[in-house]
Amino acid sequence: MNAGTQIAGTQNTAPLRIGLLGASRIAELALIKPATATGDRLVAVAARSPERARAFAEKFGVERVVADYGALLADPEVEVVYNPLANALHGPWNLAAVSAGKHVLSEKPFASNATEAAQVAEAARAAGVTVLEGFHYWFHPGFGRVKQLVADGTLGEVRHIEAVLEMPRPGADDPRWRLDLAGGAGMDLGCYAIHVQRSFAQWAGGAPRVVSAFADEHDGAPGVDDRLDVELEFPGGATGYARASMVEREYRFTVRVIGSRGSVYVHNLLRPDLDDRLTLRTPAGTTSEHVSHKSTYTYQLEAFAAHLRTGAPLGLGVDDAVANMVLLDDVYRAAGFSPRPTYQA
Known about the structure:
The protein is an alpha/beta fold.
């Protein structure tokens, strides 16, 4: 029986037993704080530097440190592996975790490219384990409210979808500027923007296709984009615009959906804990809604636990992850760049 599988006729409410690959900066926001809120256990951590792993475990209350990534995957007490490694290491270590019979919560992107993503998906299906790509915004009721406004006809027919994700420039030595580590604005932020577009496919006649794309190459990093703009088209005639940039002065994570009867604007897609406003414009006027300041990551972990413990549907699966990477690869080709290469150790 796979780790964490529920026995028929029982209600398993035990905390998830999570092992962390790496002592990453994103882990505090994406996993540590949510696990503290949900009561799930941080069983073990492994990092390239044992000293860093020990400091991380002490700071965040991880129960123990193990020797390396392989030891973490072999640990019988670990049932869920959290993978926040560099982009290029998502695919290989997701595959390794699946092979060890573990469920996986993987930071996005799911893999370096669509081919690798398909390999992970096939392995997960064969092993009967769950691998969730961390599009945490999707689980927040704010985004659920946007989909409701589209589904119930409040906005009318979908005409245009805009997703803009921008951030200040990372340091020159950041792995997101390395092609061999699957870096680039498209991989770091564009995967979100593309995923948002795809989330409305059922109300726009089907999945979007790339019409055109333009990217700026980062100075000193051949093949790595620091800014990416994409025009998309849906089968039903709606258009889409996706923008990702890692060279801006401020953070901006916004979404706008425009319909024939109105529009809705999401002020902060990724951090509604900082700003949970939705602005709705219809012929009846303009209103502002506050949905929930609870972290998107906490909603994500709650949904993941409910799926593993009770079989509750996630709504996102490995097929979705593969489809997102297929479209992202298409975006890179349209912009005159190559899809990110599979990691070579």
